[in-house]
Amino acid sequence: MAKAKILLVDDEVEFASTLAERLNIRGYETSTVYTADAVLERIAGNVPDIVILDLKMPGASGVDILKDIKKFNQSIEVILLTGHGSDQCNSECQSGGAFDYIMKPVEIEGLTVKIDMALKKKKG
Amino acid sequence: MKNVRLAFIDRILSSYAHEVRNYLAIIKETNGLMKDVLQIGKSRSVDSKQFLGYIGCVEDQIARAVSITDYLHRFAHRMDCGRAMISINDIAEELTALMTRLAYRKRIAFEKTLRGGIPQIEADPMLLHCLLFCIIDGKISRLDRNGVIRVGSSLSEGRVCLALESKGESSKETPTAICSDEELNELAAEIGAEILRNGEETIIKLPAA
Description:
The complex is a heterodimer. Chain A is α/β, with parallel strands linked by helices. Chain A is built from five helices and seven strands. Chain A has a single domain (5-123), classed as Response regulator (Rossmann fold), CATH 3.40.50.2300. Chain A is 46% helix and 23% strand. Chain A is globular. The relative contact order of chain A is 0.18. Chain B is an alpha+beta fold. Chain B has two domains: 2-78; 84-207, Histidine kinase-like ATPase, C-terminal domain (Heat Shock Protein 90, 2-Layer Sandwich), CATH 3.30.565.10. Chain B is built from six helices and seven strands, in the order H-H-E-H-H-E-E-H-E-E-H-E-E. Chain B has helices at residues 2-39, 48-78, 88-98, 100-104, 125-142, 181-190, and strands spanning 84-86, 109-114, 121-123, 148-156, 159-167, 194-198, 201-207. In chain B, helix 1 (2-39) runs antiparallel to helix 2. The A-B interface holds A 12, 14-15, 18-19, 21-22, 25-26, 56, 58-59, 83, 104-106, 108 and B 18, 21-22, 24-26, 28-30, 32-33, 36-37, 40-41, 57, 61, 104-107, 145-146.
């Protein structure tokens, strides 16, 4: 049985598919979505435990997608992917209700630690 | 005008850094995946075809990073001289490559029709780059998602022309262009260029050397 259901949202197809495979090797059940428009439809069809969301999606604001996810289902934990850690990113992350953020390129071990912490929070 | 020039360099560098960081992120993940398959995925047999696919992906990302770095390199070297002989087609290729990431944020694509055999122009490369960048940047900021910016070069009455035309819906957001029309005219005057505006098309005319 998978440790958790994860949805990875990033427009960089090679990046997202490779990271998803790495998470799957580590026992998570990870699927991918490459456009902002497809996120809610996918979530409605198969509710994930955690969404890993790129903050800079073309033509869409990651913070808006985050708010939509939270509005749809408050219990889904969201980890933001960002190119640069900054105070602005931190405040966007907090104001939108994200669990945390992680910088690109990703340190896989750091990401799995955050995923497990988010799961712990979700399970109370 | 100093602020405009600084903002221009800032946006070029930010676009370049964003692009290269994405290539590095893919290389890092692909490399990590190869390591994972060898170290963690013990139940999976190592498939050489699969590994060649991973290596091909890494090579592809390296080639892309090298290509955009070459553009930045040429761009930076042009700035070394105050006045130089320049090919308008080279400048257009370079700028659109370096601005790809800025445009992609709104899924805006460049369509280029660069005519061969156009004479060179003699101008200050920094000012010319800055002028063209500001015009394209303004068009990106005014366009909505999925628009197109057409870039075409030609020769007309002994003058080198670069036409920049945006196609698509106008953005409802407040434009974030770094330069006003007055400032663009000022920049153009400094390099002896003329700007013609016709709806969504902007034509820059420069004297051939």
